[in-house]
């Protein structure tokens, strides 16, 4: 065989490879989910919303469908805008949809090891098991007395504090429950170290943009640049908050260990784990788990309760209807108890509508596909970030009528109500579903029922006597928080005030 034949054959073979490659690429590209057109190389970067991402994605989904592809700097992002698509992928195919992307910004902030951000694998299983075993349904009874006690303390704070402190005390309610569950510590003073840490950590979590979406997450090299460098501004957030985040890892375990040595530790997650710890076991896992529970459970509960309070300011008629229901079932001689829950369907509906109307994790926490997958003829590429658009699902008109209005009746059984499904999606999906959902649900219920039973929430009034209508918007962060909670909270009656003061411990 002559040299020329070898050369021609090689060129022909290479050409064939390129043609097959191009054909495969074309086929692959044509199978990708639809999405807004992007620019060469940078994809949709320039069109990515700077705020209200979940709402903007929901609008785009009306054009591109419930499974939508966005590309940012070559990184595929799939937005799931329908409950069905999220269940089909994240729940039913959990084996390949339960990973997380790398959250460089959160790692730099000191969140490590943190269940929320752990990649799917052995460490994830260990942390998930630690959380689930302590926060399981069967344990819920143990927490109810803590939750009831903190709800009563909250009532006293709300009627005694000036309006600009409402936020502080609602946050303290959430913190008070978590510190007791995690570290057996009851907050009794405003100087409590957990309150300081909680305040700083909440700020850190609501100022980081959508999870996994900061420029540092896309270009980890930016972490080595000064904060003034374009795209590196989050370095300032890291510097401001890292020490407190690390302190939150050290403090609970250090304190409970000392209490344990002195035989003074109260039951808690940390004590439970310390007692089970085997020789040589890494205490860093426990530190990470405790800090995660604290961070994941505090801001979410606080923000959701704030959403409820604003909804009551904006809808006095709904507040009055719930109070009528409570007066009928509970009366005015005692405060609501967990045992009343099944008899208060309208209060239940308000809780559900609070979770639906303004979900505090509007885009959840992104999952990551670990394999190529085909869904309804569309290719979900390996490595894609998968966002469940929880806010988008809340606005799905085929499930929720008048989705923009706050209408608890939608959840009441037919014919009195619309029989629409509860909004469990607020807690996420599949193998990454929120481990604290049952605790959160009970904390929210007892706080909502107790506030409605005893307090009247109305608009605040400014210096010139004008009624203030709170702006019903949320910040953009890992956890979103209402921007404006201006209102007035007073006891419903003298009897209600007496009940609050008697019950508070
Ligand atoms: C209103 C309150 C809460 C809401 C709305 C909420 C919502 C969520 C959501 C949407 C996720 C992401 C799920 C996913 O990736 O699909 C999540 C994860 C998580 N939540 Fe919650 N949560 C709340 C309260 C709590 C509480 C009280 C705790 C703990 C005491 C907690 C612990 C966690 C943890 C550890 C994760 C990460 C799970 C994992 O990655 O495997 N959450 N939560």
From TrEMBL:
Q: Which InterPro entries match?
A: Cyt_P450 (IPR001128), Cyt_P450_E_grp-I (IPR002401), Cyt_P450_sf (IPR036396), Cytochrome_P450_fung (IPR050364)
Q: In which pathway does it act?
A: Secondary metabolite biosynthesis
Positions that bind heme:
434
CDD domains per record: CYP64-like (cd11065)
Q: Which GO terms describe its molecular function?
A: heme binding; iron ion binding; monooxygenase activity; oxidoreductase activity, acting on paired donors, with incorporation or reduction of molecular oxygen
| Listed cofactors | heme
Q: Which domain of life is it from?
A: Eukaryota
Enumerate the UniProt keywords alphabetically: Heme, Iron, Metal-binding, Monooxygenase, Oxidoreductase
A single Pfam family it belongs to is p450
**Transmembrane residue ranges:** none
Q: Which family does it belong to?
A: Belongs to the cytochrome P450 family.
What is the protein named? Cytochrome P450
**Which organism's genome codes for this protein?**
Mycena albidolilacea
């Amino acid at each position: 065989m002559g040299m020329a034949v070898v050369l021609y054959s090689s060129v022909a073979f290479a050409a064939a490879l390129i043609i097959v490659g191009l054909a495969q690429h074309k086929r692959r590209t044509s199978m990708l989910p639809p999405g807004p057109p992007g620019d060469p190389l940078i994809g949709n970067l320039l069109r990515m919303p700077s705020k209200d991402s979940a709402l903007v994605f929901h609008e785009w989904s009306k054009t591109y469908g419930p499974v939508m592809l966005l590309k940012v700097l070559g990184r595929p992002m799939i937005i799931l805008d329908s409950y069905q698509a999220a269940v089909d992928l994240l729940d039913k195919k959990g084996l390949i949809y339960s990973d997380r992307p790398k959250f460089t910004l959160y790692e730099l902030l000191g969140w490590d090891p943190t269940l929320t951000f752990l990649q799917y694998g052995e460490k994830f299983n260990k942390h998930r098991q630690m959380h689930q075993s302590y926060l399981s349904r069967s344990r819920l009874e143990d927490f109810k007395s803590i939750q009831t006690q903190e709800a009563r303390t909250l009532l006293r704070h709300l009627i005694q504090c000036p309006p600009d402190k409402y936020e502080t005390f609602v946050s303290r309610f959430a913190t008070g429950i978590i510190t007791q569950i995690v570290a057996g510590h009851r907050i009794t003073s405003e100087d409590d170290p957990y309150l300081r840490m909680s305040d700083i950590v909440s700020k850190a979590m609501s100022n980081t943009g959508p999870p996994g979406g900061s420029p540092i997450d896309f270009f980890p090299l930016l972490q080595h640049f000064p904060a003034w460098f374009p795209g590196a501004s989050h370095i300032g957030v890291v510097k401001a908050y890292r020490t407190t985040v690390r302190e939150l890892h050290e403090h609970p375990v250090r304190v409970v260990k000392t209490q344990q040595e002195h035989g003074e530790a109260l039951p808690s997650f940390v004590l439970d784990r310390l007692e089970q710890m085997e020789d040589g076991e890494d205490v860093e896992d426990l530190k990470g788990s405790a800090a995660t529970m604290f961070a994941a459970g505090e801001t979410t509960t606080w923000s959701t309760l704030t959403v409820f309070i604003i909804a009551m300011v904006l809808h006095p008629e709904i507040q009055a209807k719930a109070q009528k229901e409570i007066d009928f079932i509970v009366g005015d001689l005692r405060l609501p108890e967990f045992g009343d829950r099944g008899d208060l369907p309208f209060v239940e509906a308000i809780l559900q509508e609070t979770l639906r109307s303004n979900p505090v994790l509007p885009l959840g926490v992104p999952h990551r596909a670990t394999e190529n997958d085909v869904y309804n003829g569309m290719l979900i590429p390996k490595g894609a970030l998968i966002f469940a658009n929880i806010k988008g699902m809340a606005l799905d008109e085929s499930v929720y009528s008048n989705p923009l209005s706050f209408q608890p009746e939608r959840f009441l059984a037919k014919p009195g109500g619309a029989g629409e499904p509860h909004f469990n999606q607020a807690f996420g999906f599949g193998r990454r579903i929120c481990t604290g959902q049952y605790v959160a649900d009970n904390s929210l219920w007892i706080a909502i029922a107790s506030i409605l039973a005893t307090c009247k929430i109305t608009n605040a009034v400014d210096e010139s006597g004008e009624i203030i209508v709170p702006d019903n918007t949320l910040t953009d962060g890992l956890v979103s928080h209402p921007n404006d909670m201006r209102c007035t909270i007073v006891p419903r009656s003298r009897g209600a005030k007496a009940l609050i003061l008697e019950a508070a411990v």
